[in-house]
Amino acid sequence: MPPRCDQTPAWPLLQDHAAAMRHGFDLRQSFAVDPGRFTHFSQEAPHCFADLSKNLWDVRAEELLLRMARDCGVERQRDAMFAGESINATEGRAVLHTLLRCPRGAAPRALAHQAQQVHQTLQAMLDYAERMRADAAITDVVCIGIGGSGLGPQMAVQALSAPDGTSPQRMHFVSNVDGHALQPVLRRLKPRSTLFIVASKAFSTQETLTNARSALAWFQAHAEGADVARHFVALTARPDAATQLGITTCFGLWDWVGGRYSLWSAAGLPIAMACGAGAFRALLAGAHAMDRHFASAPLQANLPVRLALLDVWYRNLMGFSSRCIAPYHASLRRLPAYLQQLEMESNGKRVDRAGRPLDLATAPVLWGEPGTDGQHAFFQMLHQGTDTVPLEIIAVRRPSHGLPGHHAQLLANALAQAQALMQGRRSEDGHRHFPGNRPSSFVLLESLSPEALGALIALQEHRVFVAGALWGINSFDQWGVELGKVLARDLQPRLASGEVHGLDASTAGLLQRMRA
Ligand code: F6P
Q: Does residue 200's CB lie within 6 angstroms of at least one atom of ligand 1?
C-alpha cells in the first residue's frame, strides 16, 4: 500500500515550512519581489486556464508537495484507476468513469469488453434522446433521481441550456422525498405529454422509489390507458427492480461507475434530452481531453494535481477547514451543490484504505453560491471574518447572452473580489480595515460550451481523486450515508404507531410532538 501524505519524508519539512509561512508570508510582498509569480503559478489545461498565484504558497511549498505526491505514488494510483484495477476495495470494484468518455478504440485493451458495452449503451441512449426530443407530443420531462443520479444531470442541464433554452421540452428535476417537490410539478403537467426519467443506479433508493411510485400512480390515474413504456424510462444497474416497479424501458449503468461520477453514462439522459446528442458527445470529449491531461502531464504541470496539492496544503498544513466555490456564471448555480457531493461524499472519510483511523483531516467543507449573489451575502466573512477561507472563482470569458454591459461587470466583479481579498485596504478604523493576504484561485473557461463544462467537471473529479490518494483513503465508497437510511426505515412506522420503546429521549420526544 503506498504511503499516506503524512508518512512521507517531505511531510515534516512541509510542516516546518507551513509554520514559517503562517507567520511570515505575505502575498502582496511575494508578488512585489517575484515578477514571475503569476506565470509560475498559472496552468493551462484543456478548455481552461487557472491562476493559482493568489494562494498562500510559494515555490518551496509546491516543490515539497510535489515530492510528497511522488512518494505517495500518485502517478501509479492514477494509472491504476485508468487501467481498471479494483481500487474501490471496500466494494471490490474498479472505478471507470473515465472509460465512459473514452473515444471508440482508445480504451486499454484489457477494458475492451466494458468499452464496447459503454459505446453500445451510449449510442442507444442518444438515439432514444433524439427520438424523444423530436416527439412533439412530449412537452415536459420529469427527471426523478437523487445524489449522483440527480445533481450532475441537473447541474449540467442548467449550465448548457441557458440562456435561450435549447431544450425542445421543459425539464423538471425532482429529488427530494418531500411531496412539496413532486406535487407542484405534477400539478402543471398532462400525463400524455410527459416523459418521466427515473434514475437510480441501485433502484432501491427510498426517495427515488417513492417519487417514482407517486408519479406512476398519478400517470395511471390520469392518463386513460396511455402506455407506461412510452412515458417512463429507467436508468439503472438493476433493470429487474425497475421492471418490478412497472418500468420496462431501461438503459443500463454499471457497478464500476459511482453515482457521483455517473453523469457521463446513461444517467446523463436528461442532459442529452435537453441539449441533444451532439452536445452530450462534446461534453464527453471535453472530459476526455482533461483525462488525457491528467494521465499524461508531468505532476508539476498537471492542473488536477496542482489543485489537489493546494487542497492538502490548506487543509492539513495551513489548517483551513473549508473552501468556498463561486462560479461567476448564473447557469452554474448548481455547481457548488454538485461539487459538495463530489468532494465530501468522496473524501469525507475518517479511516485510511486499511480501515485505520486517520490522525489527519480529510475533505474540507465545501460551500458556495454564484457570484455576484454571494458577494452580497457571505463575502463579508471572506474579507473580514476570523477564518481564512480559500475562494475558488470560476469565470467564463465569453457570455452566451447578448445583453450589453452585463458580462464586463460580472468579470470585473470576479477580478475585484480576488484582488480585494489579496490586497486588502488599510484603515485606522478597525471596522473599515481589510487585512488582505487572503487566498483565491481563479479558473477561467473560454465559454460555457459542453466541451468546457466536461473538462471542468473532469478536472474537479481528478482533483478529488488526487487528494484522496494523498490522504490514503478510498474516495469511491460512501458507507457514511447508510446509517441514517436504516434508522429512517425504523422510525417511519413508529410515526404511525407512536411506539417509542428503545428510542433516546430526544428522538422519542420529537416523534411524539410530530404525532400530536
Ligand atoms: O445515499 C447516497 C447515494 O448512494 C449516492 O452515493 C448516490 O449518488 C445516491 O445515493 C443515489 O443512488 P442511486 O443512484 O442508487 O439511487
A: yes
Shared-domain flag, residues 25 and 127 = no
User: Residue 165: its pLDDT value, please?
Assistant: 62
39-63: pLDDT as tens digits = 999 999 999 999 999 999 999 999 9
Beta bridge partners of 197: 143, 233
Q: Please tell me which residue in 40, 44, 190, 376 is annotated as part of the active site.
A: 376
- Whether 208 is in the pocket of ligand 1, judged by its Cβ within 6 Å, is yes
- Can you give the pLDDT at residue 156? 98
- What single string gives the DSSP state of each residue in 388-404? ---EEEEEEEE-SS--T
Q: State pTM to two decimals.
A: 0.97
Check if 119 is active-site: no
331 in the same domain as 252 = no
Asked whether residue 205 falls in the same domain as residue 311, the answer is no
83 part of a folded domain: no
270 with 196: CB under 8 angstroms? no
Q: Which residues pair with 393 in a beta bridge?
A: 326, 442
Based on the fold, state whether residues 164 and 51 are members of the same structural domain: no
Per the annotation, the verdict on 207 as an active-site residue is no
What percentage of the chain reaches a pLDDT higher than 70? 99
Q: Could you tell which of 461, 474, 481, 485 is best to mutate to test the pocket of ligand 1, judged by most ligand atoms within 8 Å of the CB?
A: 481
Tell me: do 438 and 328 sit in the same domain.
Answer: yes
- Do residues 15 and 316 lie in contact, with contact meaning Cβ atoms separated by under 8 Å? no
Each residue of 311-354: pLDDT tens digit? 999 999 999 999 999 999 999 999 999 999 999 999 999 999 99
- Domain count for the chain: 3
CA 2 to chain centre: 26
- The answer on 133 and 14 residing in a single domain is no
Task: Say whether 190 is catalytic.
Answer: no
Instruction: Please give the residue range of the domain that contains residue 486.
Output: 480-515
Task: Let me know if residue 108 belongs to a domain.
Answer: yes
Q: Is 485 found in the same domain as 472?
A: no
Atom of ligand 1 nearest to the CA of 267: 14
358 lines ligand 1 (CB under 6 A): no
Q: Is 304 in the pocket of ligand 1 (CB under 6 A)?
A: no
